[in-house]
């Protein structure tokens, strides 16, 4: 098991290198010049060249890449081209809102989607099943910003149950924190809930046809135990897989949600950095999210072994 | 326990206790939907305390539906009970509430199933799966429960009980899993045990042990057993009384002795007459000296040590020497895991053998490349066990049959004409060519699979358990067909089977495999008639119903081994 984890971590190194190279080149190849943005509309060509030289942007691409990756290896992510703040400081400041949003959103997803999927499979072809499938299709098809604005209109403006936007740190008390994060987390969770409820239903339908479910019923066990102990654990592997791959949805959802609800998190930082062509910040953010994606999926692969004793690494 | 016994039920004995453990009367089960189809049409049967009743019939006759209805386990969205009564110890189970039904399961009535591989939950430990029965139905404390689990595992004679408790199903053998199933079913000592083909998926030796175990526990606990099977051999060995089912009705019933000796209905007679005899058929004269297949020192090792893998690897087949001549049938028999299928797959080069030689019509094919193998592929064809899965459901029968010839350059029109005549050869109408596999029965599908294999005019047919999934009457027809085709086409047949009865009836020579090696090989009459090796003897002894001559409705001459036959002429208890 440990050897497997170690091997997987080693295998993710080339992945990260490819990601780093890819972002670096992609950014340099997109039109837009950070020096021009910093200098403003009235800058002379000489001023622009001066700024470029200061930022190291006049060096050949290869030199720039080697410098950047060399710094990365020492843990130095560079500093923002615009604000001259170290990138890590910028990210650190914005980490809490995003992390809170992702975690609360994930908890909501699991609490809602898995029972929904189990119920739909148990009551296959019933009204409940159709309702769950309908919610799931809606959740998929409505973009996050639409869901977000509808939630704001209904729950914040009309019913006045929640604040319209913004973020309150958890250090200011769990009540205010939850009150502010509820709507954005729900908006972010919808698509994920739709995906996982659907997957849970499909996986459960498969498993409920298995012989051992009949055995469990023949033993006189209650339906609750049959569904959750016998069926759900066997359906766990495909569900976990989707939780892992669907994590990419959440990362992209964060960017939109933070804009809609005006949450000062990494998503907003990403948008701002892209608009300003702030290369070091964009590079660091994409590397960070790729790293998280790889780590989440490694975690999920490892968790298979805990769900199914037949899987050994 | 007896609190729910109803007075006034017709079966109630004077003291108020029911005379029968299970009574099913006039049970009608239909499919759901607009046009309901009758699956059970007025089935009535009963099982007395301590009695073993066998319910026999071919697939689709309604045996399993009867048992599932008793347990209240009919698939709700597909089947529904239209009318009739089912009483377990006098209590009506059809009108019982879902809660009451759950209480009755495992305490009054239990069930064991056919596939011990799939009937246990793969992700829960054995102890957990036993414990939850106690947890659901009794107030026993943790210590008591642990003790009862260990007691019952000992009763079903499982070794190393502590390790067994911690194990998961995939770590046990098929026989061990079925013992766990039995332990699970009997841990609360129910009065009724329903066994639905519990030994069909097991080897004969394991089957014998499980049957003995069930009989032994039954004697100790006084359990009534309703045993569902299609195997008349098993019936002859264990039954007190027999019900014969067909098309959802009981055709005939009676004590085992009268069913085997004096079957009254034609269907029962046919069923018994289709049981292949265990005594080998007379040897056939050799027709040709041409050797079609010869293997020498054929060896297959899985997971051989490599740069990434330490250890010895698993030897699936070692030093296999076989010779098969034109027009002859060579059987490979043995238990599961003995390596018979591995040999078949190596011969077909579906697996790449790790050593030895395979000569097909005197050409070496063991180590030639995939490309060089291509011309040889059409010389050998395979028939698989399960015709439901070996035919592509999306292709028409014709498309499946002509695919091979077209690959080898035959033009489509003549391939289709050939396919039509092949379908007639295997006993199907020529218009079957445009239909899909799901429109045929299991036996017909196996005929299609045979036609497909013959389309390339092979010299060698490899049949891997080709009749094992078929009912006995269909099995007999397919065996006749293979025999007939062989006489006409002179094809050599390598016939893999675990069923000694089938081997005795179709093979000219037989090789007995155990643990990847051939322990005995020779003419069928000698190997099965007068085995030299203890292992072969053991296999033959384990064959169910070996003292009974089914087609002639009498015990085999010279059979004097003490068995149920001696008991069963007496009236049932």
TrEMBL record, chain A:
Entry's Gene Ontology cellular component terms: plasma membrane
Transmembrane segments: 9-27, 99-122, 134-157, 177-197, 237-261, 281-307
Any single biological process term in GO: transmembrane transport
Keyword ATP-binding: no
UniProt topology in membrane: Multi-pass membrane protein
Keywords per UniProt: Cell membrane, Membrane, Transmembrane, Transmembrane helix, Transport
InterPro entries, per the entry: BPD_transp_1_N, MetI-like, MetI-like_sf
Keyword Transport among record annotations: yes
One Pfam family this sequence matches: BPD_transp_1_N
Family recorded in the similarity comment: Belongs to the binding-protein-dependent transport system permease family.
Designated name of the protein: ABC transporter permease
UniProtKB/TrEMBL annotation, chain B:
GO biological process per UniProt: peptide transport; transmembrane transport
Domain ABC transporter: 22-272, 293-540
One Pfam family recorded for the sequence: ABC_tran
GO cellular component: plasma membrane
Subcellular locations according to the entry: Cell inner membrane
Keyword check for Membrane: yes
Stored Gene3D superfamilies: P-loop containing nucleotide triphosphate hydrolases (3.40.50.300)
InterPro entries: AAA+_ATPase, ABC_Ni/Peptide_Import, ABC_transporter-like_ATP-bd, ABC_transporter-like_CS, Oligopep_ABC_C, P-loop_NTPase
Membrane topology label: Peripheral membrane protein
A GO molecular-function annotation: ATP binding
Keywords linked to the UniProt accession: ATP-binding, Cell membrane, Membrane, Nucleotide-binding, Transport
UniProt record similarity statement: Belongs to the ABC transporter superfamily.
Protein name: ABC transporter ATP-binding protein
Species of provenance: Fulvimarina endophytica
High-level lineage: Bacteria, Pseudomonadati, Pseudomonadota, Alphaproteobacteria, Hyphomicrobiales
């Amino acid at each position: 098991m440990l050897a497997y984890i170690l091997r997987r971590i080693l295998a993710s190194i080339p992945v990260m290198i490819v990601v780093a190279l890819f972002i670096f080149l992609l950014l340099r190849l997109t039109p837009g010049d950070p020096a021009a943005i910093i200098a403003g509309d009235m800058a002379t060509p000489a001023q622009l060249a001066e700024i470029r030289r200061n930022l190291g942007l006049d060096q050949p691409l290869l030199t720039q890449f080697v410098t950047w990756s060399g710094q990365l290896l020492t843990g130095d992510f560079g500093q923002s081209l615009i604000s001259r703040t170290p990138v890590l400081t910028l990210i650190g400041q914005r980490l809490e809102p995003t992390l809170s949003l992702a975690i609360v959103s994930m908890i909501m997803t699991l609490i809602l989607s898995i029972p929904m999927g189990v119920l739909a499979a148990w009551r296959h072809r019933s009204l409940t099943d159709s309702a769950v499938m309908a919610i799931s299709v809606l959740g998929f098809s409505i973009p996050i910003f639409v869901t977000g604005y509808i939630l704001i209109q209904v729950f914040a403006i009309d019913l006045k149950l929640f604040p319209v936007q913004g973020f309150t740190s958890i250090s200011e008390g769990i009540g205010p924190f939850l009150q502010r994060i509820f709507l954005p987390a729900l908006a972010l969770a919808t698509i994920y809930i739709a995906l996982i409820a659907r997957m849970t239903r499909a996986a459960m339908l498969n498993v409920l046809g298995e012989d051992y479910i009949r055995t469990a019923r023949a033993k006189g066990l209650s339906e609750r135990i049959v569904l959750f102990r016998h069926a759900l654990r066997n359906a766990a592997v495909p569900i976990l897989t989707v939780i892992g791959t669907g994590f990419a949805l959440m990362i992209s959802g964060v960017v939109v949600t933070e804009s809609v609800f005006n949450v000062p998190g990494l998503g907003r930082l990403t948008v701002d950095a892209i608009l300003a062509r702030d290369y070091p910040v964009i590079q660091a953010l994409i590397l960070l999210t790729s790293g998280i994606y790889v780590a989440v999926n490694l975690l999920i692969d490892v968790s298979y072994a805990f769900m199914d004793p037949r899987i050994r690494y | 326990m007896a609190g729910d016994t109803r007075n006034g039920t017709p079966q109630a004995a004077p003291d108020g206790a029911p005379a029968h453990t299970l009574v099913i009367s006039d049970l009608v089960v239909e499919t759901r939907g607009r046009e309901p189809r009758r699956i059970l049409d007025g089935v009535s049967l009963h099982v007395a305390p301590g009695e073993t009743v066998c319910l026999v019939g071919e697939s689709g006759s309604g045996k399993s539906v009867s048992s599932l209805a008793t347990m209240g386990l009919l698939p709700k969205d597909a089947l529904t009970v239209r009318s009739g009564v089912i009483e377990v110890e006098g209590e009506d189970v059809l009108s019982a509430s879902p809660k009451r039904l759950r209480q009755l399961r495992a305490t009054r009535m239990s069930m064991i199933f056919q596939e011990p591989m799939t009937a246990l939950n793969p992700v829960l430990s054995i102890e957990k799966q036993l414990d939850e029965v106690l947890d659901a139905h009794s107030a026993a404390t943790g210590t008591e429960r642990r003790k009862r689990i260990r007691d019952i595992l000992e009763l079903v004679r499982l070794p190393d009980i502590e390790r067994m408790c911690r194990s998961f199903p995939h770590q046990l053998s098929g026989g061990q899993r079925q013992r766990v199933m039995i332990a699970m079913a009997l841990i609360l000592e129910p009065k009724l045990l329903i066994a639905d083909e519990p030994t069909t998926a097991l080897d004969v030796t394991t089957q014998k042990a499980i049957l003995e175990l069930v009989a032994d526990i039954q004697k100790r606990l006084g359990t009534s057993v309703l045993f569902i099977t299609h195997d008349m051999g098993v019936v002859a060995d264990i039954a007190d009384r027999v019900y014969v089912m067909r098309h959802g009705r009981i055709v005939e019933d009676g004590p085992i002795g009268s069913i085997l000796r004096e079957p009254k209905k034609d269907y029962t007679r046919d069923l018994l007459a289709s049981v292949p005899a265990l005594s080998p058929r007379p040897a056939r004269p050799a027709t040709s000296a041409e050797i079609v297949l010869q293997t020498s020192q054929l060896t297959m090792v899985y997971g051989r040590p490599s740069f990434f893998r330490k250890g010895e690897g698993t030897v699936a087949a070692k030093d296999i020497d076989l010779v098969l001549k034109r027009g002859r049938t060579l059987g490979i028999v043995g238990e599961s895991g003995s390596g018979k299928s591995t040999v078949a797959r190596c011969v077909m080069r579906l697996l790449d053998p790790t050593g030895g030689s395979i000569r097909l019509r005197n050409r070496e094919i063991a180590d030639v490349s995939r490309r060089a193998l291509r011309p040889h592929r059409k010389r050998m064809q395979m028939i698989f066990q399960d015709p439901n899965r070996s035919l592509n459901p999306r292709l028409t029968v014709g498309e499946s049959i002509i695919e091979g010839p077209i690959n080898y350059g035959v033009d489509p029109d003549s391939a289709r004409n050939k396919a039509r005549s092949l379908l007639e050869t295997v006993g199907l109408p020529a218009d079957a060519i445009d239909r899909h596999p799901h429109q045929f029965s299991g036996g017909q599908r196996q005929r299609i699979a045979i036609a497909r294999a013959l389309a390339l005019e092979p010299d060698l047919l490899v049949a891997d358990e080709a009749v094992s999934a078929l009912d006995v009457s269909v099995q007999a027809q397919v065996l006749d067909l293979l025999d007939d085709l062989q006489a006409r086409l002179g094809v050599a047949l390598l016939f893999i089977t675990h069923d000694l009865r089938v081997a005795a009836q179709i093979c000219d020579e037989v090789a007995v495999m155990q643990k990847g090696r051939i322990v005995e090989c020779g003419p069928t009459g000698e190997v099965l008639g007068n085995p030299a090796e203890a292992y072969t003897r053991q296999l033959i002894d384990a064959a169910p119903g070996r003292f009974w001559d089914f087609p002639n409705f009498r015990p085999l001459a010279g059979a004097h081994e003490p068995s149920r036959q001696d008991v069963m002429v007496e009236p049932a208890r």
